[in-house]
Amino acid sequence: MQTFLGLPLSQEWQDLFIWERFFKIYPVRTFIELGTGHGGLSLFFALQCHAIGASFHTFDNQTLINMDEPLAKLVNLPASFYNIDIFEGQDQIIKLIQSSPHPMAMFFDDGDKPREWSTFAPHLSPGDYCAVHDFGTEFTEEHIGGVPVVRILGEISDKRGAGWKSMWFKRT
């Protein structure tokens, strides 16, 4: 398993490059991650959000991340982590979407990406951003449904093969 600053991460290193480009081109005021996992990508997101002054929130029903890691504490990751089942706690997440500053981005990477998308993406506003991990395997174009989006960062992400790659969208 790969790591980011010592914390395990499920993404490939190329995703970090694309995410860094995302944060540079599309500044957000709020970032919501569904699926914290071991926390490597959460730490990356928290650092990116800290650098641009955005709030960061991450949700998972498991606690695989070691919150005692010095870097996790440095970016106050324990305060950004919500240990809940995202579907049982969907009202809390929807309220966060509605009450937080926009534009915001939401990363769908918990256990059921099509259900995550259909539950939360419709609550995002035009001008907000969505990204889905495992595009082409666990989540496909047909899962987008009636949520109005356009692809972004395709010039970078399309060069990668299907599998673990992420796909980025902007709500219209």
Mind sketching the topology for me?
Elements: E1 2-4, E2 7-9, H1 13-25, E3 30-34, H2 40-52, E4 55-60, H3 70-74, H4 77-80, E5 81-83, H5 90-99, E6 104-108, H6 113-120, E7 129-132, E8 149-152, H7 154-157, E9 167-171
User: Roughly how many Å apart are the termini?
Assistant: 36 Å
Helix content: 25-40%
How would a crystallographer describe the biggest sheet?
A: 7 strands, mixed
- Secondary-structure element order, N to C: EEHEHEHHEHEHEEHE
Low-confidence residue ranges? none
Number of domains: 1
Number of strands: 9
**Annotated CATH topology:** Rossmann fold
The average pLDDT is: 91
Assigned CATH superfamily: Vaccinia Virus protein VP39
CATH class: Alpha Beta
Q: Identify the CATH architecture.
A: 3-Layer(aba) Sandwich
Structural class: alpha/beta
Molecular structure report:
The chain is α/β, with parallel strands linked by helices and 172 residues long. The chain has a single domain (2-165), classed as Rossmann fold (3-Layer(aba) Sandwich). It contains seven helices and nine strands, in the order E-E-H-E-H-E-H-H-E-H-E-H-E-E-H-E. It has a seven-stranded mixed beta sheet with strand order 5-4-3-6-7-9-8, sandwiched between helices. A two-stranded antiparallel ribbon has the order 1-2. Strand 6 (104-108), helix 6 and strand 7 (129-132) form a beta-alpha-beta unit. The protein is globular, with a radius of gyration of 15 Å. The chain starts with a strand and ends with a strand.
